[in-house]
Design brief:
- It is a multi-pass membrane protein.
- Its main location: membrane.
- It holds the Pfam family BPD_transp_1.
- By secondary structure, the chain is an all-alpha fold.
- The chain has a single domain, classed as MetI-like fold.
- Helix 1 runs antiparallel to helix 2.
- The protein is elongated.
Length: 218
Amino acid sequence: MNNMNIWQQLVEQTQLRWGEVLEATFVHIQLVFFSMIIATILAVTLGIVATRVPWLKNIILGGTGVLQTIPSLALLGFMIPIFGIGVYTAIAALFLYSLLPIMRNTYTGIKDVDQATIEAARGLGMTNMQILFKVELPLAIPVIMAGIRTAAVINVGNATLAAFIGAGGLGDFIFLGITRGIDGLILLGAIPATLLAIVIETFFSAVERWTTPKGLRK
């Protein structure tokens, strides 16, 4: 099939399914959003714990690293007996895939804070908790945001696989296009997913830059 026919199919499918595309995009965003919220809270917490309890570092980072090696569809398969078919399984899998980038960057961001700055804070009489929340985390936020950005962009792509377990999203069009042999239908899911990833990448890049102290901006 030539390229002209593919784009004609895309136009036809868009006209027929425009409402469905908007609905699927909203579902896709929800899958990414909820998984990222849960992952960010837990991953930042575990990253902080890893900086405070050194012997837990390898356990925490190693355990989440193992999750990254599991293929996406296989991880969905592991989640199905626990959460069943549908949205909860997709969110759980996306949550697990989000942990490592955020946790690793939280750990790295805090550990990279200049020790002289920390000692100066102690000299001012700050407690460990005050140093964490008033010195270390504010300075580590740009690095943490980079981890969140990476996890969010990866999740936009992984969320397309939610279609295989009936969780909806833009992957529905890709899966339907493959099964029916309609290339335009595949693009109807692939193009919005790509644009969504670009929007999220741009948004978090801006937030990352905004949270970086002016003197450290490139």
